[in-house]
Amino acid sequence: MPQFEFRGTSRTGEQVSGTRFAPSREALDAILRREQISPTRIVEKGREIAIPKPKVAGRVSAKELAIFTRQFSVMIDAGLPLVQCLEILATQQENKGFARVLAGVRSSVESGSTLANALRQYPRIFDDLYTNMVDAGETGGILDTILQRLSGYIEKAVKLKRAVQSALIYPVAVIVIAGGVIFLLLWKVVPIFATLFAGLGVQLPLPTRIVIGLSNAIGLFALPLIVLLVLGGYGFKKYYETATGKMQIDTVILKIPILGNLMRRIGVARFTRTLGTLITSGVPMLEAMDITCCRRSPTFTRMKSTPRSATC
């Protein structure tokens, strides 16, 4: 029987490695998955056999995920086999990327992996909250109930997000339109009056001179300013995606009188709903707090350098 060296990731995210005897690579892969280890590399007698990584899916909206979870729970409750449920749902998906993901999950489950570990291969779609609740449902034998709670949670999250967007769309639109109008006036209209005032030969008031100076600067550097604004917006977005940037920017947002109070209420609502859903589903308290605190929220953002246990 050939001997294999392997490396992989356990269900807790730890890197594991070792040596095993197995009839074939496929047999060893199935054994490791039954032990809740996702192999990333297998070596047989000095020859490396790479485990293909799951294909990265495209964008999957929260609405699509909620519909999938609701349908999945109904099919499980009706007594259909897990693999058959995944196969049916994969064929019914209009999102081709999501369909490929479900096909990959079905393949992993067929090879002996648990559903939670199969879903963990796609962290961009199924986050820690989703996979841990599925894991708790599989362990307790209440997967259909857990999936129903998950779908309800996702639907409420989508509703809250839409409410926030509806509340912010008017002030944001007013600010953007006002900024565009001011820029257009300084660029095209003010130079006409500046020429008229120059012909009068009189001393202009200080506010008028400031406006004309801004107009002249925009007229000379309009294109560089537009490029600078675009680059600045892109840099701001990238900086906000980091833990340090998110912490600093969210701290400033929370100090804004009206907007800060709104974001604080949203953060508290998300925190309590997420924690309550996890605890009700049977996830241990410490793990539930860890998952809830580490979900990126304007109120409960953590630094990457801060230990997870200390933050939660």
Tell me what you see in this structure.
The chain folds into 4 domains: 3-50; 62-155, Type II secretion system (T2SS), domain F (Receptor-associated Protein); 158-230, no CATH class; 260-311, no CATH class. A hairpin with a 4-residue loop joins strand 1 and strand 2 (15-21). It is elongated, with a radius of gyration of 27 Å. By secondary structure, the chain is of the alpha+beta class. It has helices at 25-34, 62-77, 82-92, 96-110, 115-119, 128-140, 143-200, 206-240, 243-254, 257-280, 285-294, 308-311, and strands at 3-10, 15-21, 37-44, 47-50. The chain has a 4-stranded antiparallel sheet, with helices on one face. It contains 12 helices and 4 strands. 68% of the residues lie in helices and 9% in strands.
The CATH class of the largest domain is identified as Mainly Alpha
Strand content: 5-15%
Distance between the termini: 48 Å
The proportion of residues forming helix, as a percent range, comes to 55-70%
What can be said about the biggest beta sheet? Answer: 4 strands, antiparallel
In summary, what is this structure?
The chain is an alpha+beta fold. The protein contains twelve helices and four strands, in the order E-E-H-E-E-H-H-H-H-H-H-H-H-H-H-H.
What characteristics describe this protein?
single chain; 312 residues; alpha+beta; Receptor-associated Protein; 4 domains; four-stranded antiparallel sheet; 12 helices; 4 strands
Topology (SSEs and partners):
Layout: E1 3-10, E2 15-21, H1 25-34, E3 37-44, E4 47-50, H2 62-77, H3 82-92, H4 96-110, H5 115-119, H6 128-140, H7 143-200, H8 206-240, H9 243-254, H10 257-280, H11 285-294, H12 308-311
